[in-house]
Amino acid sequence: MQVRDSRQGYGIVSRTLHWAMALLFVLQFTSAMLHLLADESPAANMLWPWHFQVGFTLWWLVLLRGTWALLNFRNRPPHDGPGLLARAATAGHLALYGLMVIVPTLALLRAVGRGRGVQLYGIQWVGPGAEQPDLAAPANLAHGTLGWVLLSLIVGHVCFALWHGFVRRDGTLSRMWRRR
Fold first, then answer.
1. How many domains does the chain have?
2. What is the domain extent for residue 127?
3. Tens of pLDDT along 45-90?
4. β-bridge mates for residue 6, sequence order
């Protein structure tokens, strides 16, 4: 079992972080959709209270995953395909990483701006304080919209991964599923 990434495929750390985050994103967007479409349903009432904590967990995981990716940068598999396709894949991944950091950061700013502070996992990360509308207002405006943009990028990411795996059959999908 290879720990680090290589030109042939992703190591166990990258794959574990990728798939753990994928499962958490399914939970996160399911809770958001239920909150939006069926707010008083039993499923929404069960999942919505976990939304902030799952988002916070994803924030830490993406920071860890980004750090791991930078440490493995020279060894990671290249984006296959013609130049434009490879550049589009790079841009798409950068947009995913950017939004995976920005969206939960906005939620944290909103919580702090509302004066609630942030307490998760039994740890007080930021203490409650006075409301700061100037901090909460931009986060209120952008968090939800950028969250849905992130979902659309994730759906595109999944579609392109499946296209690579089942149409092009170029090994791209298998590098994240298992080593080539």
1. 1
2. 12-177
3. 999 999 999 999 999 999 999 999 999 988 888 777 778 888 998 9
4. 9
